[in-house]
Amino acid sequence: MTSHAEALGHHEHHGPPAAHQSSRVDPRVLGMFLFIASEAMIFGSFFAAYFFVRVVNPDAPGTWPPEPFHFPVFVAGVNTIILVTSSFTMHWALQSIKRGQRTAFLAGMVLTFLMGLAFLLTQVIEYLHVGFNTGDGAFASVFFGLTGLHGAHVAVGLSLLGMVIIRGFRGHYSPEHHHGVELPGIYWHFVDVMWIVVYATVYLI
Question: In three state form, how does the secondary structure of the chain look?
Fold first, then answer.
């Protein structure tokens, strides 16, 4: 009788049931994907404003940007190459820590950080020499708004990469525990892909 009561007590569960977890997607990765989806919606609203301004542009219908302004397409193109390359070094860093190659992991992270920083500094220099500011019309407002929104995401990504680098030099990651690298990596890939969309939309179309 006692053993039966003990068995029942052993199987009793107090409080809410355990959260259901998918066997295919880690909850932390799923959370990052959901966060990225919300960020994509924010970019979507800025793109909607951008296209609205282009369609109803009263200054010079059919021309973008309005004369006599010009976007620095070449500089932005070089910046695009830098940022896309940083996605490859980020992937290299993640795969390296999964294989236990700490030196390659740290090298990949540092290279990714430096390229992201170069991108951000180049964008700041572009703003200083672009030849117009936010008061020069709606086109300027949406230009700075959309590219500035992306620049803010790059800055957040650099903060995450910096923390990964600091923890990496302290030996905090291993092949068994690498989610602290994978999650910022997913975010960084999102930032890179979003810039390709911004570059194609703003500078090329």
Answer: CHHHHHHHHHHCCCCCCCCCCCCCCCHHHHHHHHHHHHHHHHHHHHHHHHHHHHHCCCCCCCCCCCCCCCCCHHHHHHHHHHHHHHHHHHHHHHHHHHCCCHHHHHHHHHHHHHHHHHHHHHHHHHHHHCCCCCCCCHHHHHHHHHHHHHHHHHHHHHHHHHHHHHHHHCCCCCCCCCHHHHHHHHHHHHHHHHHHHHHHHHHHC
Question: Does 92 map to a domain?
Answer: yes
156 in a domain, yes or no? yes
pLDDT of residue 25: 67
Q: 67 lies in a domain?
A: no
What global pTM score does this model have?
A: 0.82
Which CATH number goes with the domain that contains 77?
1.20.120.80
When pLDDT is averaged across residues 159-172 and rounded to a whole number, the result is 93
Q: What is the mean pLDDT of the chain?
A: 85
How many structural domains is the chain composed of? Answer: 1
Average pLDDT over residues 84-99: 95
21 falls within a domain = no
pLDDT, greater one: 105 or 132 = 105
- pLDDT digit string (tens) for 27-73? 788 888 888 999 999 999 999 988 888 777 655 555 777 777 788 88
The domain in which residue 103 lies consists of: 39-57+73-204
Measured from the Cβ of residue 133, the count of other Cβ atoms closer than 10 Å reads 11
